[in-house]
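Is this the right way to post C-alpha cells for a design question? Let me know if I should format differently. Anyway, here goes:
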C-alpha cells in the first residue's frame, strides 16, 4: 500500500504517497497524525482505490482514553462517481480498519454499511 497523510499541514500528498507495510501504516496513524480536526491518513491500494481516516473534530482536552470517540470519518472517494462512501468511526476502530484495508484492499464494499455523499 501507499500512504499519505496530513498532520497540521505536514506529510506527503497523495501524489507523493509512500510505500508502507501494515506496521508502518498503523504507526503513522498512532504517532504521526495527531487527533486534530482536519488531520488524516490515506491509504492507496494496488488497484488505485483510496480509503481515508479523517479527524472531523479535535480530541477534547482532558480525555485520557479517546478510543471511544466517534470523530473519525472513514471515507472512500470515488472520483468516477463524483462522491464518496463513508461513515463515522471511533478512533479505536481505525487500527482494525487499517488491517482490513491491507487484507482486503480499499474496496468500500468490504467495510460494512456506508452512505454515499455526492461532492
Amino acid at each position: 500500500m501507499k500512504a499519505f497523510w496530513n498532520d497540521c499541514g505536514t506529510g506527503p500528498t497523495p501524489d507523493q504517497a509512500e510505500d508502507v507495510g501494515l506496521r508502518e501504516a498503523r504507526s503513522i496513524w498512532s504517532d504521526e497524525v495527531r487527533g486534530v480536526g482536519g488531520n488524516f491518513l490515506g491509504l492507496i491500494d494496488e488497484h488505485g482505490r483510496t480509503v481515508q481516516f479523517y479527524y472531523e473534530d479535535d480530541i477534547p482536552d482532558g480525555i485520557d482514553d479517546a478510543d471511544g470517540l466517534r470523530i473519525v470519518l472513514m471515507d472512500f472517494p470515488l472520483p468516477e462517481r463524483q462522491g464518496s462512501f463513508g461513515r463515522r468511526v471511533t478512533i479505536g476502530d481505525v487500527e482494525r480498519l487499517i488491517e482490513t484495508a491491507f487484507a482486503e484492499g480499499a474496496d468500500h464494499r468490504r467495510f460494512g454499511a456506508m452512505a454515499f455523499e455526492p461532492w
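Format looks fine. Someone answered above. Worth noting: The helical segments are 22-32, 94-104. The mean pLDDT is 96.
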